[in-house]
Design a protein that fits this description.
Layout: H1 7-11, H2 33-40, H3 43-56, E1 61-62, H4 72-89, H5 100-121, H6 127-150, H7 156-183, E2 197-198, E3 205-207, E4 210-212, H8 220-240, H9 246-262, H10 266-279, H11 285-305, H12 309-322, H13 326-336, H14 338-341, H15 365-398, H16 402-421, H17 431-462
Antiparallel strand pairs: 1-2, 3-4
Helix pairs in contact: 3-4, 3-7, 4-6, 5-6, 5-15, 5-17, 6-17, 7-8, 7-9, 8-9, 8-10, 8-16, 8-17, 10-16, 15-16, 15-17, 16-17
């Protein structure tokens, strides 16, 4: 025993410094906060960010020198492509089963673009046409991750959450457009983001006595088309999202429909009619009757509050049939002269190369696709809409829940709308419409994949 120590001190255990660190093992079943953050970032979260960027930031703000492709939403998709590849290599994300159709549709469209890109290199094209073809390839690269992300969704609740977010964002966009219509001035012209430049003028144009709003869209027709795309899902959510108060459920429907009418365009009217024609046959007679009981007074109130709007819209169609409409005459002239612009009937002149500054406006995506991508490109665009219609209809037949069935009918309505309004303007040339179209293509495929997977599980349990 050391000198000066007592017996009690001698009996105490000697504590020695241990230089070797003790490894702390995670307890089984415990999920730490860092792991929660990592797991929470999935394809649905990435798509939610994309939807907000697509709707909130004006489409006219792009990266300098890139053109309409260089929107913030598109640049985010390019970054998410890297995230998807890394996550796929780590086996954290993969394509969902039974979602092959949207990828096949994109593959056909990609083949058309690449063949047309080869075609532009084989002719003596202007330097601006080569640059436009390069931008078209960049746009194609943007749509690839959008389809991969959407077809990686494996649950209906993910699709439903994204559609609700899409409708809410469109409601805000619609509200801004309505204020522009009423106050006769652009409410987004003041928005400037460092590093981005304006790809077009922010001034509003007029038709008759009315100002045509654009909100965050690049063009009035783009705003009208996006509103019509969102309307079927806004109606579905209004009928079935019973956890919210009635005015909160129906306010998005009213905002979206009214803002579409306020664009004073044939595209919006045609789209609204098509949505009604596709949705109403699937409703019971009581719902159809209540719809007309609401629509008739609403149209009367709009005539009182906005006098002359209905007459202006009707005059658009009468002028079109009487041959006095400039935009219709422009389309007719381009169709008549199509032979001198069409170099190759199968592959076209090259993607993005039929520039208005060099040639003329087409205001018809099918005609523009025939000139730039040839017959293969037109078939590919039609295939995109047909896949959307088929996926929505086939998924609807497999679901028994009324809310899920009406979601499928919403995809059918969007597909038919895009089939028709693609004739009225060059839809895929505008980033908000193009992004919404490919978003709906991927979500419709995911919807059908969920329906088929759930039917398979039920079949396995019955065995």
């Amino acid at each position: 025993m050391p000198i000066g120590s007592t017996e009690a001190e001698a009996e105490r255990p000697v504590l020695r410094n241990v230089s070797k660190p003790v490894a702390v093992r995670p307890r089984p079943g415990v999920v730490y906060r860092s792991q929660q953050r990592l797991r929470s970032l999935g394809p649905d979260s990435v798509l939610a960010i994309y939807i907000v960027l697509l709707m909130a930031i004006p489409s006219r703000l792009v990266l300098p020198g890139v053109g309409a492709v260089g929107t913030v939403a598109n640049m985010f998709l390019l970054a998410s492509f890297i995230w998807y590849v890394v996550s796929w290599l780590m086996r954290r994300v993969t394509t969902a089963p039974n979602t092959r159709l949207p990828r096949l549709a994109l593959l056909l469209y990609s083949a058309a673009v690449l063949l047309a890109y080869i075609a532009v290199g084989r002719r003596d094209a202007d330097a601006s046409e080569y640059s436009a073809a390069d931008r078209a390839l960049l746009q194609l690269l943007v749509w690839i991750p959008l389809i991969l992300l959407t077809t990686s969704l494996t649950e209906y609740r993910q699709i439903d959450r994204l559609l609700k977010l899409f409708v809410r964002c469109c409601s805000i966009v619609a509200l801004v457009g309505m204020f522009e219509f009423l106050f006769h001035r652009s409410l987004t012209a003041w928005i400037q983001i460092p590093g981005l430049s304006a790809n077009g003028a922010a001034e509003l144009i007029t038709r008759g006595d009315f100002v045509r709003p654009t909100s965050t869209a690049a063009n009035t027709l783009e705003l009208a088309t996006v509103m019509v795309i969102a309307l079927p899902f806004a109606i579905q959510q209004a009928f079935h999202d019973l956890d919210r108060k009635a005015w909160k459920r129906w306010a998005p429907v009213a905002l979206i429909a009214l803002s579409a009418v306020m664009t004073v365009s044939r595209t919006s009217v045609i789209g609204l009619v098509l949505v009604a024609v596709v949705l109403m046959p699937t409703w019971d007679l009581r719902r159809v009757g209540r719809t007309f009981l609401v629509m008739i007074p609403a149209l009367g109130a709009m005539k009182v509050v906005l006098p002359g709007l209905g007459g202006t819209v009707i005059a658009l169609f009468t002028a079109m049939f009487n041959g006095g409409d400039n935009s219709t005459n422009s389309r007719t002239a381009t169709t008549a002269d199509i032979g001198k612009y069409l170099d190759n009937v199968w592959t076209g002149r090259g993607p993005g190369t039929f520039l208005p500054l060099l040639y003329r406006y087409t205001d018809n995506q099918y005609l523009l696709a025939l000139l730039e991508l040839g017959v293969i490109g037109v078939v590919a665009i039609v295939a995109i809409y047909v896949v959307m219609i088929h996926s929505g209809g086939a998924g609807r037949r497999r679901f028994a829940d009324p809310a899920r069935r009406e979601t499928g009918q919403g995809f059918v309505a969007v597909g038919f709308v895009m089939l028709v309004v693609t004739v009225t303007f060059d839809t895929l040339s505008f980033p908000m419409v193009a992004g919404s179209t490919f978003l709906m293509l991927g979500l419709s495929g995911a919807y059908l994949g969920v329906a088929r997977t759930e039917i398979g599980r039920i079949g396995d349990r019955s065995l």
